[in-house]
Specification:
The chain is an alpha+beta fold. The protein folds into two domains: about 150 residues, Alpha-Beta Plaits (2-Layer Sandwich), CATH 3.30.70.1900; about 130 residues, 2-Layer Sandwich (Alpha-Beta Plaits). It contains eight helices and 16 strands.
Length: about 290
């Protein structure tokens, strides 16, 4: 990768928090829990600090990306027993990492709000930091470079991208339901998202951005095998008092050929997510090689 790519990786900080809750009563939670957690976190910030709420939930500029994503548990379990543990992850990016300690305090103070439509009572057992070295009890900020230190084999015969949550990509305002993405598409989408977040929350430096895009890999012809389906989800919008469609693509794509240069870029996409509604847990995928 280019010097500009490495420089931005060094500058791009993140904090990933793993939150563990213990339910005090039986609960009925939605199958896909990202929207529920997004709403609960918003209330948690608002009651703690208007300034903190403003950082994460206010639209500062048109199309400015939010500096966080929520990673929900992969199962679609609806019925939960009293005493069961529930986990999710919250990742903060760029300048948002500077208020991570306040975010942790806000989360602890918001347990009384309850979870889900029934406001099921719970307690927060722990909030830990996820790092490339594992889970730590302390608050730890890492750079993107630290997450990319584990390199794949020099020769990669194939790369597989597997969705963990529905991928919501749009064309002319409509969600794409059937599409085979080649690897250059994934590279373009991931770099665009990374650079958008970086512009507003890390460093706004046009020459750096231009250099990264000019030196991005343009892979030769490669084989693509995909097995995907469109999942039609709906989420309850508390502000609009209605259910809203939030479906997306699930499945996997396998790329064979000269694909090694795509690996570090796809690993960035693993952290940031792709498409719309990443703040609610959509667009998360895993890369295998």
């Amino acid at each position: 990768m280019s010097d500009a790519f490495s420089e931005l990786c060094d500058r791009f900080n993140s904090v990933t928090l793993r939150v563990t809750l213990k339910l005090h009563e039986r609960a009925r939670l939605t199958a896909f829990k990202g929207s529920m957690l997004h709403g609960w976190w918003g209330h948690a910030l608002k009651q703690y600090s208007e300034d903190l709420f403003h950082i994460f939930f206010t639209e500062h500029q048109t199309n400015q990306p939010k500096p966080y994503v929520i990673h929900t548990c992969p199962d679609h379990k609806i019925h939960w027993k009293a005493g069961e543990l529930f986990r999710f992850q919250l990742s903060l990016f760029g300048d948002a990492t500077k208020v991570a300690s306040q975010v942790i305090h806000a989360l602890y103070q918001a347990a009384h709000l309850g979870l889900g439509e029934q406001r099921t009572p719970f307690s927060i057992l722990s909030i830990e930091s996820m790092t490339p070295d594992g889970v730590h009890p302390d608050l730890i900020t890492t750079s993107l470079s630290q997450w990319l230190t584990t390199k794949p084999p020099i020769s990669i015969p194939d790369i597989t991208v597997m969705t963990q949550t529905p991928l919501r990509l749009k064309y002319k305002g409509k969600a794409l339901e059937h599409l085979t993405f080649d690897l250059n598409f994934w590279i373009q989408k991931t770099l665009s998202r990374w650079l958008d977040i970086s512009k507003y929350w890390v460093i706004d430096h046009a020459p750096l951005t231009r250099s990264i895009m000019q030196t991005k890999p343009c892979l030769p012809e490669h084989q693509v095998e995909s097995q995907t389906q469109f999942i039609a989800w709906h989420r309850q919008s508390m502000s609009q008092k209605t259910k809203m469609p939030v479906g997306g693509l699930t499945g996997q794509w396998r790329f064979s050929g000269e694909v090694a240069e795509a690996w570090p870029i796809l690993k960035i996409g693993e952290m940031l997510g792709l498409g719309s509604n990443t703040t609610m847990g959509f667009g998360r995928f895993h890369v295998l090689c």
